[in-house]
């Protein structure tokens, strides 16, 4: 069932927090040198109950996410 | 016994060809937090309501599939809606992050 077929029970995005970090090294790799974006989203359901969701993105993953948001905004503007 | 020049050359060649992939694999193994598996979205338009006619208000419905690396069977699905102003706020966040990436990460 894809997104266009689902009934509408989406919550509302009430907060978004982010941080940009760099993974310096690990037990397996002396020089990771790997930037990442960590995000936390808070979504309120119809009853007002808030759920928190966090995830971590590599820079290319973040850029893809950001592109999607821009696409959405561009489409919304056309309406 | 030390390596022959031939062996050393083979190792160098292997490393040169595969080092990025190896590094990326090592990097992904060190994310023990959730990762974003998939992003889907659609735009809905509310065209009429009981109290107001022809409002034509678009809203973005987003679905995120969030995966935990330790328990990849369990995918968390999060759905939320954003109106134009909330999406604008999200885009500002994206821009702020991009600016910080440019400033701090010379890749």
UniProtKB/TrEMBL annotation, chain A:
Residues 12-79 form the COMM domain. Pfam families: COMM_domain (PF07258). One of its GO terms (molecular function) is NF-kappaB binding. It comes from the Eukaryota. Belongs to the COMM domain-containing protein 6 family. Scaffold protein in the commander complex that is essential for endosomal recycling of transmembrane cargos; the commander complex is composed of the CCC subcomplex and the retriever subcomplex. May modulate activity of cullin-RING E3 ubiquitin ligase (CRL) complexes. Down-regulates activation of NF-kappa-B. Inhibits TNF-induced NFKB1 activation. This is COMM domain-containing protein 6. It comes from Magallana gigas (Pacific oyster).
Automatic annotation (TrEMBL), chain B:
GO terms for biological process: copper ion homeostasis; negative regulation of protein localization to cell surface; negative regulation of sodium ion transmembrane transport; positive regulation of protein ubiquitination; regulation of proteasomal ubiquitin-dependent protein catabolic process. InterPro entries: COMM, Murr1. Residues 35-105 form the COMM domain. GO terms for cellular component: endosome. Pfam families: COMM_domain. It comes from the Eukaryota. This is COMM domain-containing protein. It comes from Magallana gigas (Pacific oyster). The lineage of its organism: Eukaryota, Metazoa, Spiralia, Lophotrochozoa, Mollusca.
